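Hi P.,

Sorry for the delay on this. The queue was packed all week, but I finally got your sequence through. Input first:
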Amino acid sequence: MRELTVALTHEHADFDAIASLLGTFLVFPDVIPVLPRTLNRNVRAFLTLYKDDLPFVAPEDLPRGVVTQAILVDSRTFNAVKGMSRETRFLLIDHHSLDEPLPPGWQRWDNGVGSHQVGANTTLLVERLILDQARLSPVHATLLALGIYEDTGSLRYKSTTPRDARCVAWLLEQGANLEVINRFVHFPLSPEQQKLFQTLMERSQHVQVAGHTVVIAAAEAPEYTEEISALAHKLRELYEPDALFLIVGLGDRVQVVARSTVDSVDVGKIAEALGGGGHTRAAAALIRGMSLEEIRQRILELTERFSQPPLRVRDIMSRGRPQVLTPDTPIEKAVELMRRYGHEGFPVVEKRRDGQEALMGILTRREADRAFSHGLGQEPVRRFMRVGSVFVRPDDPISVVQRRMIESGWGQIPVVDEGGQIVGIVTRTDLIKLWGQAERVQESREAVAQRLAQALSPAQQQLLRLAGQEAARSGQSIYVVGGFVRDLLLGQARGKGAMLDMDIVVEGDAIRLARRLQEKCGGRVVTHRRFGTAKWLLKEPEHPVHCPELTGAPAEAIPAHLDLVTARTEFYTAPTVLPTVEQSSIKLDLHRRDFTINTLAICLNPERWGELLDFYGGLADLQRGVIRVLHSLSFVDDPTRILRAVRYEQRFNFRIEERTLELLRDAVELLDRVTPARIRHELERILQEETPEKALVRLDELGVLQRIHPLLRADGWVSQRFPRLRQRLEEPDVLAQAVAEVGEPIERLYWALWIYPIPPQADPELAERLRLRTETMRFTGHVRRLQAHRDELTQPELPPSRTVAILDGSPAGALLVLSVAEENPTLDRRLLRYWTEWRQVRPSLTGADLRAMGLPPSPLYGQILWKLRAARLDGTIHSREEELALVKSLLAQEQAAQAADTQAEDTLPDPKES
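Then the structure:
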């Protein structure tokens, strides 16, 4: 019997579902796209007009056969068609609910582009068509565009992504008709729909749930026969809520249609609790035996349960006690602090009789500057502060902060805990950074914890959990931050044996935490109080670890140490100089870092294990592939960030964001002020990358290399030779094997190859400009010596002895660099013979033999032994006897020469006589 593959979607199908069926057929031409039995009204109208140009099949018209595979699009729910059985395989193409596990045996489709986080399911299939360079008919292009337009609100919903917009642009190029799209996206309601829509609009209730705006509209319509989803679209466009619930009484049953524009209101779970189902953002339920009011109350309860604030104050505030002023602080002191930390204001507090602090008001930067400019620097803050007690709680939604700022006019709102203590502050800048990110890209704690479990060994995880537990017991918070978190979220982080290659920051006192860990588990602690750092040593025999959490793990699985750093902030007193550092909060600690993608942190405290802190949009930039600085003076403060920006850009195939690139170009000239060692360090880091030539070429394009030294370039030479060097190192090449055996650093090989085209006369300048390491200069000297003989080494008739004379003493790495640089077959054959054969050739006679022949020790030994070796290499002698004969001949020549010199001296006139 014929085997069939069908594509199916949900009932009450909208344009996204039907367009996804079409897209599946275009990607997999052997698939039969089967229409559901019920279609939305606008979809039915479109198919009535254009069905002759579309491949859809009604369920009753499906050919006879066995359905071996069913491709489900835009939904996991479907009505079975004839021919399906328990053996039918399922493939899901769905942009919803990425975190939900698939039923056993199901597979999720990979479109070859990446994440399924797009606004419309159709986008996933169109992206594949773009990759396949497909050509579409205008009708096909129009239907696919309708799928994206309807599910993204014509690209206006919060869920819309740049990927959706790119696909629409491509479909327009393929002939999608905007007039037709507009007609069916804004399809007029029927009189019956208009009547119910008016009733729902009049009975809409707007409520706040967990910081979200939720609209609930209920109406009785026992005679209603049209679909309700079209009304949900209309009301969502009208009110733009975070979540929408329509409750329509249809006589003996009640239909609930739910829509959400944010993942933090999961309408799928709400509908499931009502006896229905769906996805996080679209769901429905059919309920019997309950009144509209009972259902409305139930929805409110469920929305409270299945909603999380998209952002809370604790998510954006600067944690820890902020810098505060007392009412008697002089204005000039306040101005100094504001300039040092870059803050626009400070809370003003006063001690009460019970010892607690009372918030008296706030002093803004503007008020402080005005008072100072009028010569009032000695006056107390109380004269100019804004009086009041305005604050928020850590668990307040962001809307509360916004309301407090609007009502008070304060640009900085203190965050106060239940005990009345100031535990942080929220500023206008914090809110501005959220603009356009009301629904920020987020990773759940569970997802991050799972990533940690995959990246770390059990012993490494146990060690971090132990540190988190002790931090929590002492009232501190501990985080892993920076590059490890970045790579973890990119799927590139892996534990390195027993080494924990990560930065661990303690919000509190790292030294105190290290001491607590030592008391609990043993080991030894080394501290650096000036910087608030501690190293917990775990493998010293005289200071063994003894807690069961660590002694149960294999010894090789425990790292040698754990480095803890106190959260700190820093400020620069002048461009390019090293910063002044002070203890601070995790937020400010992250703010001092270079790029947003390096500002991510994961909390290790037990109750917050896996919680991702993303104050500066780092996760979104990771997903967009963007390198972005945190502030406009970033490159001015530290110009070496220029080289790091390019290194990250090329390593991850990202792009430097436009404003960041503009700031980078403006700061290039400041590289002249950076110490040579710091520039060298950054270049070495680049040369340690997998493909360093990409970063070097980019630096050349930006004029950075020429700023470091006018002769430094990265053109076609670098782009062609660097990959060839890597290829040689990976081949079964004797020179490459020798390089590996001695452990020659790859950056040293790259450096010598990079500067090979530069005139050797420039080497001293480069060494001085970059303070090159002694080993690097020595290695480069070997390469330069070989380079000076390259013409001679490529001569076909060059004797082996001359080759050996040139090459002897050169490390294998220098020979390899010469080979890659020159790309000369004659040279390569000669280098190979030298390394595998000629360098081992030695005469059988030794210095001891020469001494036995009566020759007194002298420099003549070396000359004779070399001539014996050269004769062996060139094949003029082959045995010990011939070596002896040659030695006698050489000695005879030497004696004759000495005699001639003596005779010449005897014939010279006596100076005394003259």
